[in-house]
Amino acid sequence: MLTIIMECRDDEAELAQTLSALVAGAVEGVVRDVIVLDHGSRDGSARVADAAGCRFLADWDLAEVVRSARGDWLLLLEPGARPLAGWVDAVVDHVAINPDPARFAGARGYRRPFLERFARRAPPLEQGYLVSKHQALAHARAGMALSDMVRGGKVRGLGAEIVPAWAVKAMRAG
Description:
The protein has one domain: Alpha-Beta Complex (Spore Coat Polysaccharide Biosynthesis Protein SpsA, Chain A). About 35% of the residues lie in helices and about 25% in strands. It has helices spanning about 10-20, 25, 45-50, 60-70, 85-95, 115-120, 135-140, 165-174, and strands at about 1-10, 30-40, 55, 75, 80-85, 100-105, 130, 155-165. It starts with a strand and ends with a helix.
């Protein structure tokens, strides 16, 4: 039903955090596969992905990656992002009744400072992006990044929260 896709570059620790949060989806049979698109990592990102059973691609074309996805829906995430409890049910409920893309709600305990929310635009994948494979295929082109897949238009909210990748990196740095 669901393919998870992430891009990474030297994100070994962050990748491990995200993959551990996705175990619940794999156990319930919702996550069909995980694809990690690499941008020249020199750390252990490939080993982490391999140990978790992910496809780790160092040379890739986004359109071909989308075509090869086993799931009918794609969940695009940043390495380090962690969907919180209830995310599997929220995704299953959404795909059962909605054809529109969706995003997680930002975790209440991990919000950017007030002024930063207005001064800076959030990265396109900060709250994840759930999109049908059919819709993704219509937009995927060679040379695109995952963040380019996020289009304007109707995006629904999922009934689950996500800890954004920047919060995980901030915790490690602090």
